[in-house]
Write a structure and sequence with these properties.
It is globular, with a radius of gyration of 18 Å. The two termini are 17 Å apart. The longest helix is centred in the C-terminal third of the chain and has 28 residues, at 207-234. α4 (63-84) packs antiparallel against α8 and α5 (90-97) runs antiparallel to α11 (246-257). The chain has one domain (2-116, 137-259). By secondary structure, it is mostly helical. The protein has 12 helices and no strands.
């Protein structure tokens, strides 16, 4: 029950990220939005971590994995995602995130040699069919460009590789510290690019900007990622299935906040996604019962 509750909270918070990003992009440049979010999140997490676990800095062999995870999951992934959000709707952005379970499962099977059962593969297939059904009318209505779809796909690939690489490392740092250092490295890597493209006239530091940043910092970058890291440790092969629930919350938020339509395709697609998630998690319950 604890894992189910954690998975639901993660999906609800992570699914709100694309809408918050879309709102922030209306008043700011993409890289400025990302870097402001990263440095605020890193400051909060590292300060809290050092207070809780005094003088606990990464060991020599932990710096490189933190840097790699920071580049893949915190620099390349969000940059490509945010630029993709300039060319696709928030709903499609959330749906793109749901492609990660398949990529992560394939990488787990090939890279980490983890056994992926037929229930999970079938659940992944059903979930992807649901994604295709839900995204079909949005593409027909020209609410997504090829550039946006490419950037979204690239960002999901980088995130998936970063996730599997994280799982391959034996960590001794607390989760909060790991997250804080990754975010800090991601911000540092992006800082020169942010400075190069910065134009003061393209940014309006109004309440919408700060609401977007703070939402991306606390519920998404801190709370949701902490839950995600917990799920990756608690259920390595099934954790990624929770990403399938993000579109459901994402469509709901998009409907309420940005007026994006909910159609029969959305309903059928999300029903298939729920079915895929249920099938994949059912295999996990069978294992526990045996």
């Amino acid at each position: 029950m604890k894992k189910i509750f954690a998975g639901l909270i993660f999906a609800a918070l992570w699914g709100s990220g694309s809408v918050a990003t879309k709102l922030g992009l209306k008043v700011s440049q993409p890289l400025l939005l990302i870097n402001t979010r990263f440095f605020l999140a890193a400051l909060l997490m590292l300060a809290t971590s050092l207070l809780i676990d005094k003088n606990r800095f990464p060991k020599r062999n932990e710096w490189l994995p933190l840097l790699v995870c920071g580049i893949l999951s915190m620099a390349i992934y969000p940059s490509a995602f945010v630029y993709a959000m300039k060319h696709v709707t928030a709903g499609i952005g959330t749906l793109g995130s749901a492609a990660c379970p398949l990529i992560i499962s394939i990488l787990n099977a090939v890279w980490l040699r983890k056994k992926i059962t037929w229930n999970i593969w079938t659940g992944l297939f059903i979930g992807l069919v649901g994604i295709a059904v839900a995204i079909y009318p949005l593409l027909l209505n020209a609410r997504a460009t090829p550039t946006g779809v490419f950037l979204l796909t690239f960002s999901m690939l980088c995130y998936s590789v970063g996730t599997v690489y994280y799982q391959s490392v034996t960590w001794t740092l607390p989760r909060l510290s790991i997250n804080g250092w990754q975010v800090l490295f991601g911000g540092i890597v992006l800082l020169p690019f942010t400075g190069f493209v910065f134009e003061i006239a393209d940014n309006d530091f109004n309440p919408t900007f700060w609401f977007s940043v703070l939402w991306l910092v606390i519920p998404v970058s801190i709370i949701a990622v902490q839950i995600w890291l917990y799920l990756l440790k608690a259920e390595p092969t099934q954790a990624s299935l929770w990403l399938f629930l993000c579109p459901i919350f994402g469509f709901f938020y998009s409907y309420l906040l940005t007026g994006e339509p909910i159609t029969i395709y959305t309903i059928i697609g999300t029903a298939l996604v729920i079915g895929g998630l249920y099938l994949g998690k059912k295999e996990n319950h069978k294992k526990i019962n045996h």
